[in-house]
């Protein structure tokens, strides 16, 4: 390879690897059952909650569709009180579930007014909105994420595409994939799906990073939300990491124990209180109708039950009251905290169970936990706190914002994962909640034996990669990926997990891959290796399958193994590592190294079971240590004169084709994704047209009202002629009539065309009024400019006269002084003339003395003054020299030059040399002088600076700023014409 080609490739690599990364804002979304919170990080705005349109920090998870209008949040809940079926809430729990799932049945029982059907292709939940419209939970979630991004972009004042989305830690593979597809439909790029308890722990840790050391500190976070309860044990400690060859200590949180109850939360308490209020109303016999048979009445009771539940957290009793609950009958009843606790007694008994489960999975006892921190609105209930205190036997910590802790921790993680921000490192290690195993069949003892191999065990940290090796297969085969035994969960939780079988993988081309190396004496098979990845979002993926062959090379083969071109390609490929490799480096991920299996054909069945499908994990440091030979090994490997004693062994990998079929819930197919995207896009376009129409209508109505009000004022009435006033009022009346008759069905373009017509009529009148109101101030500014300019003119005249008497070269020429004097005089004459002409006009006549003309005159005078002021700043005085002095100076200069050339008397010359003052080489020309034809100043007319001792600058006369500020157009004109 030639040197030029080499340097061209190196230059290209350097340019691509050092390309600048532009800062962009990122966001996080906390998807709760009832509420949604959004946080942003943008340049100059670190970690801030994005407010919704009502300027609130959290938004109800609700979407309503009525009369072709789509509403979100509080507006949607308002629709839901009157039309419960048209407002969708609490749908997050329906993601990734089939119609017969136990939680779907609970949802249908709680909200019977929804028409829920099964998807014909996937068997998942679908809301039947009307005879023609259906909505899937993924579509509803996508719309909600779009609204979250709108809140974030309004706060950041720029576009946002990247987000970290918070999900419950107990979400399985199907549920996580459903969230990712919903984000794809919304147009968001998901940096990570983050478990809620991990986000809370990160928020706790980033503000206490100085409190951690090498000794692990154990903290429990107890989170009771609307639908579920979670207890999490987290360890915090400093760990040493090596990045770019530098070892540094960074704090790290590790999730080591999790316990949860998927159906214990505030929603169940609210449902029980709703039913209690419904029974009380029926007992009053105010109407023969049953309140439980009326969806609208039940929606009102549900809303009031939520309010009363919150009030009872701080009060011992409260009145529930609803106007016109059913058949125009009002309802009011007193509810005590004691009654509420009694109806939820069994729920409070379940409060302790997640703590026991978390401690069991972590292997710790309660005395090792330093503190228990409450998170979630459900922990505000006094009875819940009482039960927790009994269990943990310590004071409960309430030092986190229960509503915003998770979303603030997630947005910190988003900033860390993005390319636009640099944050202090805080490592996170999440844990596998549901263990995953691989099951395959193997022939043994004349039969088929099912073999199970654990892939990711319970509480294994992730993100992580694993490699599973199959040693015995010579032909195509199949294996299954399933959840492992979930005995640590209670039976109801196992049912909530859903389908335990995850996928079936079929391998093909195995025999052909073996055939390529069959019969080779120097080749040995190391098995078929399947590469699995559990990424940072907790989503399992099979990335590749390959047959690994080790080949022993002869000396000749080893010498020609790698050419310079292949070495260069290898170097460049390392520089351009893929996103997966970059992500692994960012997350301190430990790569997996496969270890050769020891099972042979002649070994016992037990030994074969242990070898078949075994996976081994090693850190990169250990791998490098194994691969790096010691000095003794080097010595043994080489003989006399550096000859190699052992042949070189290389690894050859043959890709194996595989097909993976998901079992249970399939993701949305491409066709379904396109249909959902089309549906959401249509709704977005409708909302955009609605906003444009409403904005145009409001602008037109405001302009009509403003015109009628202004014409009643004296200033505007006098500035308009009779014909103009009549035309404007007639058009206003015509527009009002049109708004009443056709305005409600008109499009935005119709409103805009009428607004333009009205503005065309009113613009001349409004302009005259503005001229009359602003003219006095403009004239004051012009008078002030002329006054200060006259003072400046008198000063420079005196200065020039004094310099002439002192036999010095004057600063200003006679042309410059006369030009300024003429400009001032002409402006004064123009002012007097225009004021006289303007005074003869009526208020309804178009003005002759305009603001623009006054500002132009001010700028003309100021340019002349600024030119002379700048000349003073750069001028250095010098005395006039006689011809004799000039001759002596020339002779002295020649003599110096001769001495310089000979190198003599150099030190003496340096004492005589004087640094010249700043020279001005550019021509200075007055713009007005050139325009008026009064000549251009040449270099002969400019004061030539001379090499002499610098003296104090001449005093610059002060020139006051004008009172009137020039318009933007005039400022730009001044900027381009000034010297």
UniProtKB/TrEMBL annotation:
Entry keyword ATP-binding: yes
Subcellular location: Endoplasmic reticulum lumen
Compositional bias ranges of the Low complexity kind: 940-966
Molecular function in Gene Ontology: ATP binding; ATP-dependent protein folding chaperone
A GO biological-process term: endoplasmic reticulum unfolded protein response
Sequence ranges of Basic and acidic residues compositional bias: 581-644, 895-915, 967-979
InterPro entries, per database record: ATPase_NBD, HSP70_C_sf, HSP70_peptide-bd_sf, Hsp_70_fam
Biased composition regions of type Acidic residues, renumbered to the chain: 916-926
Annotated stretches, region: Disordered: 578-648, 878-979
Signal peptide span: 1-23
Name of the protein this chain belongs to: Hypoxia up-regulated protein 1
Any single GO CC term annotated in Swiss-Prot or TrEMBL for this entry: endoplasmic reticulum lumen
Family: Belongs to the heat shock protein 70 family.
Keyword Chaperone: yes
Keywords associated with the record: ATP-binding, Chaperone, Endoplasmic reticulum, Nucleotide-binding, Signal
């Amino acid at each position: 390879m030639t040197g030029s080609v080499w340097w061209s490739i190196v230059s290209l690599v350097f340019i691509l690897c050092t390309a600048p990364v532009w800062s962009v804002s990122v966001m996080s979304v906390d998807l709760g059952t009832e509420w949604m919170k959004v946080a942003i990080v943008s340049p100059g705005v670190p970690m801030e909650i994005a407010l919704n349109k009502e300027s609130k920090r959290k938004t109800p998870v609700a979407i309503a569709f009525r009369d072709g209008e789509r509403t979100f949040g509080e507006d949607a809940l308002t629709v839901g009180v009157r039309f419960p079926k048209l407002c969708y809430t609490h749908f997050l729990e329906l993601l990734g579930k089939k119609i017969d799932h136990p939680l779907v049945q609970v949802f249908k029982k709680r909200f019977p007014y929804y028409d829920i059907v099964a998807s014909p292709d996937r068997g998942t939940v679908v809301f039947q909105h009307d005879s023609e419209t259906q909505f899937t939970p993924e579509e509803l979630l996508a719309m909600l994420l779009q609204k979250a991004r709108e809140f974030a972009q309004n706060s950041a004042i720029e576009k946002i595409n990247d987000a970290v989305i918070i999900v419950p830690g107990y979400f399985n593979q199907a549920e996580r994939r459903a969230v990712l597809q919903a984000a794809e439909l919304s147009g968001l790029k998901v940096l990570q799906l983050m478990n809620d308890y991990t986000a809370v722990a990160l928020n706790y840790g980033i503000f206490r990073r100085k409190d951690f050391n090498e000794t692990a500190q154990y903290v429990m976070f107890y989170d009771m939300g609307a639908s579920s309860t979670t207890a999490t044990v987290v360890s915090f400690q400093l760990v040493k990491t090596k990045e770019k060859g530098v070892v540094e200590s960074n704090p790290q949180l590790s999730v080591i124990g999790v316990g949860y109850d998927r159906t214990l939360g505030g929603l169940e308490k609210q449902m029980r209180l709703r039913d209690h209020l419904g029974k009380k109303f029926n007992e009053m016999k105010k109407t023969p109708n049953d309140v439980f048979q009326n969806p609208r009445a039940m929606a009102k009771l549900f809303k009031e039950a939520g309010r009363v539940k919150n009030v009872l957290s701080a009060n011992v009793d409260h009145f529930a009251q609803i106007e016109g609950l059913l058949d125009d009958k009002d309802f009011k009843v007193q509810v005590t905290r004691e009654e509420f606790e009694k109806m939820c007694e069994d729920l409070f008994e379940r409060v302790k169970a997640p703590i026991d489960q978390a401690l069991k999975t972590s292997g710790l006892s309660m005395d090792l936990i330093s503190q228990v921190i409450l998170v979630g609105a459900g922990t505000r209930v006094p009875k819940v706190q009482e039960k927790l205190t009994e269990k943990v036997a310590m004071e409960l910590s309430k030092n986190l914002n229960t509503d915003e802790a998770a979303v603030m921790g997630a947005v910190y993680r988003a900033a860390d994962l993005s390319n636009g921000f640099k944050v202090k490192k805080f490592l996170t290690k999440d844990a596998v909640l549901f263990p995953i195993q691989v099951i395959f069949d193997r022939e043994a003892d004349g039969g088929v034996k099912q073999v199970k191999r654990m892939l990711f065990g319970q509480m294994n940290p992730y993100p992580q990669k694993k490699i599973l090796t199959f040693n015995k297969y010579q032909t195509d085969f199949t294996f299954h990926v399933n959840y492992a035994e979930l005995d640590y969960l209670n039976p109801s939780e196992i049912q909530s997990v859903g389908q335990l079988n995850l996928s079936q993988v079929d391998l093909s081309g195995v025999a052909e891959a073996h055939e390529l190396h069959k019969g080779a004496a120097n080749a040995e098979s190391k098995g078929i290796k399947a590469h699995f990845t559990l990424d940072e979002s907790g989503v399992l993926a099979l990335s590749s399958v390959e047959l690994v062959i080790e080949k022993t090379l002869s000396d000749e083969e080893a010498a020609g193994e790698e050419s310079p071109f292949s070495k260069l390609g290898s170097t460049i490929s390392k520089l351009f590592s893929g996103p997966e490799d970059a992500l692994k480096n960012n997350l301190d991920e430990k790569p997996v190294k496969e270890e050769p299996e020891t099972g042979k054909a002649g070994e016992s069945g037990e030994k074969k079971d242990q070898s078949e499908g075994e996976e081994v994990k090693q850190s990169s440091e250990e791998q490098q240590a194994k691969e790096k030979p010691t000095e003794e090994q080097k010595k043994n490997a080489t003989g006399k004169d550096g000859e190699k004693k052992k042949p070189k062994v290389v690894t050859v990998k043959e890709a194996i084709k595989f097909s993976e079929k998901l079992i249970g819930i399939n993701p949305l197919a491409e066709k379904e994704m396109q249909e959902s995207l089309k549906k959401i896009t249509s709704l977005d376009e409708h909302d955009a047209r609605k906003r444009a129409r409403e904005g145009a209508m409001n602008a037109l109505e405001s302009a009509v009202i403003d015109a009628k009000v202004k014409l009643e004022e004296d200033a505007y009435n006098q500035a308009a002629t009779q014909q103009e006033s009549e035309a404007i009022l007639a058009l206003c009346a015509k527009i009002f009539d049109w708004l009443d008759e056709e305005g409600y069905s008109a499009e935005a373009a119709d409103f805009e065309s009428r607004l333009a017509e009205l503005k065309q009529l009113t613009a001349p009148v409004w302009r005259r009024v503005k001229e009359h109101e602003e003219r006095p101030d403009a004239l004051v500014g012009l008078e002030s400019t002329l006054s200060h300019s006259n003072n400046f003119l008198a000063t420079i005249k005196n200065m020039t006269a004094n310099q002439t008497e002192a036999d010095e070269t004057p600063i200003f020429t006679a042309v410059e002084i006369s030009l300024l004097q003429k400009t001032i005089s002409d402006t004064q004459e123009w002012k007097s003339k225009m004021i006289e002409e303007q005074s003869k006009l009526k208020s309804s006549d178009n003005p002759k003395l305009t603001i623009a003309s006054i500002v132009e005159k001010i700028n003309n005078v100021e340019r002349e003054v600024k030119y002379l002021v700048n000349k003073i700043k750069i001028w250095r005085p010098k005395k006039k020299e006689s011809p004799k002095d000039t001759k002596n100076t020339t002779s002295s200069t020649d003599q110096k030059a001769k001495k310089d050339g000979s190198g003599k008397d150099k030190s003496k010359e340096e004492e005589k040399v004087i640094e010249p003052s700043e020279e001005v080489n550019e021509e200075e020309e007055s713009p007005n002088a050139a325009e008026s034809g009064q000549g251009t100043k040449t270099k002969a007319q400019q004061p030539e600076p001379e090499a002499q001792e610098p003296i104090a600058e001449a005093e610059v006369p002060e020139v006051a700023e004008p009172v009137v500020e020039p318009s933007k157009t005039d400022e730009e004109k001044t900027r381009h014409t000034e010297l």
